[in-house]
Amino acid sequence: MNENEKFVPLRPEDIKKYRLKFEKNQKLIYIGHLDLLKLFQRSVKRGKLPIEYSKGFNPHQLMVFAIPLPLGMESGAEYIDIRLTEDVPPETIVSSLNAVFPQGIRILEARKISFSQNCAADVHSADYTVILPHTGFEDIIEEINKSESIQIERTVKKRVKQTEIRPYIKKLSIEGNTLKTTLVTGSQGNLKPDDLLKYIYKCKGLEYIPYKVKIKREEMYADTEGSVKL
Fold this sequence. Notes:
Layout: E1 16-24, H1 33-46, E2 63-65, E3 74-84, H2 90-98, E4 105-113, H3 119-122, E5 125-131, H4 138-146, E6 151-156, E7 159-164, E8 169-175, E9 178-184, H5 193-204, E10 214-221
């Protein structure tokens, strides 16, 4: 751009923004969020998608993830918003990325969204399925569902504080060793499955050992009740 040209920002209606839903499993559950971001950046280039870049001295691809997935957790419903410089059919985005992704990452669907939508801000809750190494938790789950208040200890800035978590547990059930729950998740409030499981195990008088528990994020929602998918 020469000194006589003026930078004209894109109007919201001219921006091509897409929301992608993808699954993350197999060995790729052990790559962290930053490595996942780099994988998407490389794959977008290899898939020859017309990604939009930020302006300035250090331009970067314009993409935003929803809630980062904890290391070691499987998911069937992760979301990322990307901005392109031209309209691309959603099915082309899906096929282009799936052709270059390694095993463990697969785009499930893509759709065009409005400029104002942002998956990081839109997410309010998430479904989880937990496979436990033990059975016999039915009494604890029933007690939690009947409780109006549940306090857990959290360490914040090296200080232990009591935190109320009952409002963040929207649904909770168990059958055998399979626990299903919908938890408030996002910037407005967040309860990690691990924190809930620590409380459940403590109530049962058992030691909670994370690597012996298999957690999968099944879906994310744009409401706290789990009725409007992201």
